[in-house]
Amino acid sequence: MRIDKSVIFRICITMIMCFAMLPYQVLYADKMPDNREPVDVGVVLQPGIAMPTDKGVYFGFDTEYMYKIAQYANLKVIYHPYKNNDELFYALQNGEIQMALGISPTPEREQQFLFASNEFFTGQASIRVRSDDYRFTFGNATDFDGKTMGVVRASIMYERAQEWVREVGISPTFKQYDDELALYADMDAGQLDAIIVSGSKFSENYRLAYSISTNSYYPIFNKNQKALKNKIDAIMNRILQEDPLYAKKLFDKYRHYKMSNDLPLSEAERKFIADNPILRVAIMENQAPFSMVDSDGTARGIIPDLYHKIAQELNWQVEFKVYKNRQEIADALHANEVDVYGITTQDIISSEEAGLALTRSFFTLNIFSISRPDVKKIRTAAYIGRMPQNVANMMQEQRNDVEFRAYDSLDECYDAMINREVDAVFCNMAQLNWLTIKRGSGSFVVESMANLYSECCGQLLPQNYILNSILSKTVQSSNIDIMGIISRNIYTQPTTMDILRAIPTKLIVAFFTVLLIITIIVSRYLYYSHQRRISAELSAKQAALDASERARQAESNFLSTMSHDMRTPLNGILGYTRLARKSKAIADIQQYLERIDISSKLMLALVNDILDLSKLESGKMELRMEEITPSEHYNSIKSAISMNAETRHIHFTSSINVPEDMAIYSDRLRLQQISMNLLSNATKYTHANGHVHWDVSIVEEGGLHFWVEVIKDDGIGMSEAFQQHMFELFTQETRKETLNARGTGLGLSLVHKFVTLMQGTIQVESQLNKGSTFTIKIPVKTGRLKPTTPAAKIQANTASVKEIPKNLLKNIPILLVEDNKINAELMKLMLAEYGATMIDWAHNGQEALELYSSSEPAHYKVILMDLRMPIMDGMTATKKIRALHRNDALIVPIIATSADAYENDVKACLEAGMQCHISKPVDINKLITAISKYI
C-alpha cells in the first residue's frame, strides 16, 4: 500500500504543534518533586462525612473541605480513619495524628484540644425510620413518644436528642451503641423504631422523619500544633472571604435523600399534589440561560430542566407558561393563572412589596461585572430587571458612583454595553458563563464582586404556603443535581454566529495570516509531491509494461519450448509406431514398443509438471504427510540418476548421513520431485567427464530436524543476471552451452514453489563455467522405524501385482463406462489379460444407469466409471446408481478412471460414492490391485 507523503507531513506538523503547546508540568511531570508539607488528619468514617475510595482518596463534607484547605496551604493530607470519637480523641492526644475534623465543642474537649477559630458548619441530626414504616409522618414529634430510638453513645447526637425530647415533651426510650454499624444492624433487624444520626445522608432503606439542629463543628488540633492551627485559621478565613457560601454549597453537595415514595411530605402536601395534578410554572421568553423558548414553542433552560426534575420526583405533571417580563408574571400569579414563577433573583423585601413570597433558596450565584476592555472606570451599568435590595445596598457601598439601568434580557444588557449605552453589565455566574460561551471571553473584562451574590428562589403567592413547602422540601431533600442542570444549560452548543462573534479581530487576522503562509508552503509541497508522484507513476507504468512484455515473451518462449518438448516424445511415439507396423521381426517390434513406452512416459512427466504448476498457482496443492524411509528414498533416486549420468559419461557420486533406524514424515512425492529436478538439471548441464555429487543428511537445530540435500556440479554454471530470475516461470538462460539441453523453464520454478510450500529454504551458489551448488533445507518430523518396516515395504511393492492371478476376472461381470472408443477398447484388452470376458460397455452415464437398473440384482461385480462424458457425467451417474432402491446399488464397487487427476477431483469422487480413483493414463497394475480389493 502506498502512503501519501503529504498526509504524513500534516500529521507530523500537528504532532509538533500539540507537543509544543504542552505545559512544562506535563512534559516534565516525572521531574517535579512533591514539596508539600504532610499533615496527619484523623476522621471518623461516616457516609457523607468521610469515606475512602478504592484509590485511597477520601470523599465527604469534612474531607473535601480539608482538601480545599490543603490546596491553599500547600499541605499533603494523610487521613487516618477511626471507628468512633473515643478512638479519634485517644490518637490525637497521643500525637498519632496532628488534627481531627468535624468535632463539636464541649468544655471538656476545649480543655484537651485546640479548636479552630472558624467552624466547618452547623450540624444537623436526622431522625430516620424505615421506608416501609408508615407510623411516622414527617415533622410530627409526637409520633416518637414511647418508641425505641437508637443513637451512638457519647456523641453530640445523643446530647442534642435528649435536649430535643425535653423541648417537645415526649418520652422515647434511647438505646445506645458504640458505632453506627451496630446501630444500623439493629434497625435492619427491627429492634429499633427509629435512629438518630448526624447529617442528612443518603440511605437506601430509610427515610427522614424529623430534623434537629445541633452544634457547630470545627477542626481540632493537638495542643502542640498551634502553628498548624494558625495556618488552618488563616486559610479558612481566606476561603470564606472569597466564597462566603462555600460551606453551604459543600454541605448541599453531600446532602442527599432517597426520593420518590420516600420524600418526607406531610398528608396536606400529598393531598395538594393529588388535588392539583398539573403544576403551572411561569417563565420569561428570553431570560437566558434560565429560560428560553424555541421556535416550536419548547421551553428550554435551567428553570424548565429543574421543574421537570421536581415533577419527576413527585410523579407530577408540569406546564410552562411564557411571559415577556416580570410584571406580567406578577399579574399572572395574582390572577391565579400560574402557581409559581420558576426562578427569581429578587430578595424577600422586593417580593413582599409585590405581595409575593419566596421558596427556600434553590441555589446561590455570585455576582460579576462585565465591561468593555477600553473602560477605565465604570459609571453606568446594565442589570436584568429590578436589582434585589440586598444587592443594591452592597453595590452602593462598593460602587456608589455607578448608575444602574434595567433591561429585560441578558442579550439586551450585552448589546447596550457593546453599543456604549452603558459601560458594564452586572450579572450572576450562570449568566456570565452563558455569555462566555455565546459571545466569547476575549471581548470583555470580567471582575468578581466580593461577597456579593444573588439567591435563586421560586416566587409564589403567600397563601400558597403548602406548594412553597413542597418545592422547598423537594429541592432540599432530593437527589436533584442542580449544579449539573446549571452546567448543561450554561455550556450549550454555540451557533456558528456565536463562534464568529466570540473570536477577537486580532486573532482572526493572525489566524488567516498563518493560514495563508501554511497554504503557500503546503501548496508548494503538494505541487512538487504531485510532480514526483506523476513521475513515479509513469515509471511504475513503464516498469509494468516492461514486466508485461517480459512475461509475454517468456510465455511465448514457454509455448515454443513446450511445443518442441511435446513434439519430441510425440515424434518418437509416431515414428516408432510407423516402424512397428512395417516390421515383421518380433525383436524389432519389441524394441520399437519399448521406445514408444519411454516417449510416452516423457510426455506424461511433462504434463504432470504443468499440472503441478497449475495446482501451485491456484493454491490447491496440499501436502501429504507420510512415513518415509530415508535409505529407500535415497536409493530409488540414486538408481535413476546413476543410469542417466552413466549414459552422459558423467561421474556421479552420492552420500547419505542418516541413522538407519530413523524415519522421516513429509510429502514423499514432493521430496522426490525436488531431488529429481535438481539432479536432472545437474546432469543435463554438466559436460561429459564432469562431476555431480549429491549429499543427503538430517541435521538438528533448535530442537527441530531438517532434511538437507546438497547437489553440487562442475558444469556450465549460471550468470549472475540469470540467477536474479532463475525461479520465475518459463525462465531459461539462453547461451550456446544450453542450446542442446534446454527444458521447459519449469523445473527450478517448481522446486522453489515446493520448497516454499514445505516451509523450507533453498540456497544457490553458481559461477559461469565453474558449476553450481544447490542447498535444500526442509523441516521434517522424525521417528523410529519398525525393524520389519523396510522388508515389509519391499515385499509389498514387488509382490503385490505378481500375487494377483491372471484369471482374476474370469466370469466376473464388469460394467465399463467410457465415452472414448479407443480408451474403451484399450481398457477391454488390458482387463482381458486377467481373464475378463464379461464386459458391458456404456457410452455415457445415462446408458450406464439404464444398464445397471435393468440388470439382475448383484449381477455386476464392479463398475469402471469415467467422469467427463456427454448426456450424463460419471459423478451424476454414480449418485443415481447409489440412490436406486436396490440393496446391491449401495455396495457395488465403483472405481473412477479419469484424466481429472487433481486432489479435489479424487475427493469429489469419494464423496459421490466411489471406492477409489485411478488416473489416466491407466496403470494396469494399480487398476487390477484396486479391483482385487473389492471383488
Account of the protein in words:
By secondary structure, the protein is an alpha/beta fold. Helices cover 45% and strands 23% of the residues. Strands 1, 4, 5, 6, 7, 8, 9, 10 and 11 form a nine-stranded mixed beta sheet that branches. Strands 12, 16, 17, 18, 19, 20, 21, 22 and 23 form a nine-stranded mixed beta sheet that branches. Helix 16 runs parallel beside helix 18 (482-490), helix 23 (668-684) packs antiparallel against helix 25 and helix 28 packs parallel to helix 29 (874-882). The longest helix is centred in the middle third of the chain and has 78 residues, at 505-582. The protein is elongated and about 145 Å long. The two termini are 60 Å apart. The model is unreliable at 20-30, 256-261 and 789-801 (pLDDT under 50).
Low-pLDDT sequence parts: 20-30, 256-261, 789-801
Fraction of residues in β-strands: 15-25%
The tally of strands reads 35
Provide the helix percentage: 40-55%
Please tell me how large the radius of gyration is.
51 Å
- Oligomer designation: single chain
User: Count of DSSP helices?
Assistant: 32
Structural class: alpha/beta
User: How does the major sheet shape up?
Assistant: 9 strands, mixed
Shape: elongated
Distance between the termini: 60 Å
User: For the residues shown, what is the average pLDDT?
Assistant: 82
